[in-house]
Amino acid sequence: MTFSFNKSRPPYPYLSAEIEGSFAYRTVKDRMPVILTKVIDFLCRSKNEIVQSSHSEAAALEDLKLIIGKLSKLRSEMQTNKTLSKFEIDCPHLQDSEKWNTELIETKDSAAPCWFNSPWLLVECYMYRAIYYMFNDSLYLKGFDPFSHMKEEAFFVQKNIICQLASYTNGLCLKSNYSSSELHVHFMKLIEICLWGNRNDLSLSAGNTNTEVKSNSFFDDIKQLNSHILVNNINEVWLHMEHIQNNPYDNKELSIIMDNSGLEMVADLCLAVYCISHKLFDRVNFYVKKIPWFVSDTTCNDLKWALQYMENDCTELQHFAEKCRAYLHSNQFQVLEESYFTLPLPYHVMQEEDPKLYKKLCRSQLIIFKGDLNYRKLGGELCWPSSTPFKTFLQGFSPAPLLALRTIKAEIICDLPSSKIKELDLLDKDWMTNGNYGLIQFAK
Ligand SMILES: [Mg+2]
């Protein structure tokens, strides 16, 4: 199957579950069915609590039973490599059904996509879109997030680290006149925090919150992990930051294309609070997901929930949340939703597919792309040779200077010589999927 936007042949094959033993194969074969099973189990176990808030409990219960049936059907279709079915009804919030149905699922020039034979990006995104569709198609459970309980649980598990980050950031905001070298040191540290915050991913652990970082000091962990940053362009990023400070921009904007909620989201907020309070930027745009996505991805509701939770907790968290709230009120923080981020489209076609979003991103002086899914989309999810330069990997996508922060959890990489790959393979055979290695890659 080829994406319809790929009028020319892609330079390399797509990652796909077709290749037995690959991480994409293991994801479609094992991780994705486990995620569906966990959602089904949760809905069965908690049905009474779920329908309680509805106007009509009996009718909501019927809805829930139907959804459970549809989820089981989806799981069995996945496991038996059936074709992806169309979305019969559009959802006003996304308005993307036509795109899915006519361009992604039903293409004129190739057979309908199947779970194991199509690009991994397409089928993995499809699963989350299909789950959303099931709830949206119901009468009483529209907009229900079947992952929110896992995200909240993960937040509690990570609370100790979240407090450390909040308190660290509060401390950085006490002083207003840092020298340039002090600003540099703290900025670098926050970028590292943002990078390693990305290790916590519930879609990788198939919703299991027990695998989170448990150390008492996240800062000690980071010190040790920094030798695992395989490409580190942080100095180029700071040079660019100096360039921004030395130029009279009317409005200095940072955009963060977010990944996971919980610890990672708080880490992103820490960087943003620091940047605004020390006037490194005038505004930070947080791009969140419009619908529940890849288990732990940040939605608007996750952000609201976390702020509310922190406002009612210890003084450090309260203080941090109040700062975020104040920046939200003054529009120095903006939370934005865009449908493009829940489509299985790579970024190099954004300018053509969603010129409005592309233009909006062009206004930023720096865009940070967090995590694996964004990285897969930056590289068009192709099997690039590892030594491919980052610029080539981006295939012309360049709305603004961009920084990819990612702990490695998928078999796609660039900027690494093949000798380094051989060395890593000997050292740790799972280095490409266990999230223990990171990348800080910058392109201007
Ligand atoms: Mg994620």
From TrEMBL:
GO MF assignments: fructose 6-phosphate aldolase activity; fructose-1-phosphatase activity; metal ion binding; phosphatase activity; protein-glutamate O-methyltransferase activity
Sorted UniProt keywords: Hydrolase, Manganese, Metal-binding, Methyltransferase, Nickel, Transferase
Catalytic activity reported: beta-D-fructose 1-phosphate + H2O = D-fructose + phosphate; L-glutamyl-[protein] + S-adenosyl-L-methionine = [protein]-L-glutamate 5-O-methyl ester + S-adenosyl-L-homocysteine; beta-D-fructose 6-phosphate = dihydroxyacetone + D-glyceraldehyde 3-phosphate
EC number(s) reported in the record: 2.1.1.-, 3.1.3.-
Any matching Pfam family: ARMT1-like_dom
Any single biological process term in GO: DNA damage response
Record protein name field: Sugar phosphate phosphatase
